[in-house]
Amino acid sequence: MAYGRRTQACRAEDNKKQGRDASGRAEVSQRMEVHEYPIPQHLRLPDWDKEEAKENRAAYPVEIMKQIMESAEYPYNVLWWLIFETHIRRGEACGLDVRHINFGNSTILVRRNRVLNVVKNTKSKRGRLFSISQELLELLRPIVKDRNACV
User: Fold this and answer.
1) How many domains does the structure of the chain reveal?
2) Has residue 149 been placed in a domain?
3) Which domain holds residue 121?
């Protein structure tokens, strides 16, 4: 045995003495410390009403959304309707392309996002698929009729 080198048996013995496994790491019980804190007696979590949460889920009441759509001029009122119906983000709305609208299935596929002047794919490579109403689809049809898809 050369000077300064230790045998595997010596290393294993040292690891065992120091409470380490064969690879030299500390055992789980020594690496992780578990702390238990008492829950304060005065702590009371709010009651959660599932039905109330569903009713209050919208960011704006329906009446205000209708006012926004009615006050906007064409084609922006259609854009607002699209955003309110699908809940897509503003960057995703700006990144929409003609090829993302499927008139046969009444769906919109969100695949791109626009931030400032950069249009790029969304974080999820698959995209998100949204169903849209027939009324919205008919309002989108004349807007996208004569447009070419961007590549």
Assistant:
1) 1
2) no
3) 50-144
Q: Which CATH number characterizes residue 81's domain?
A: 1.10.443.10
Q: How far apart are CA 95 and CA 119, in angstroms?
A: 6
- Say if 125 falls within a structural domain: yes
Q: Mind listing the pLDDT tens digit of every residue in the chain (151 residues)?
A: 444 455 666 666 776 666 666 565 655 545 445 556 666 666 666 676 777 666 666 667 788 888 988 899 988 999 999 998 898 988 999 999 899 999 999 999 999 998 888 888 887 778 889 999 999 999 999 988 877 766 4
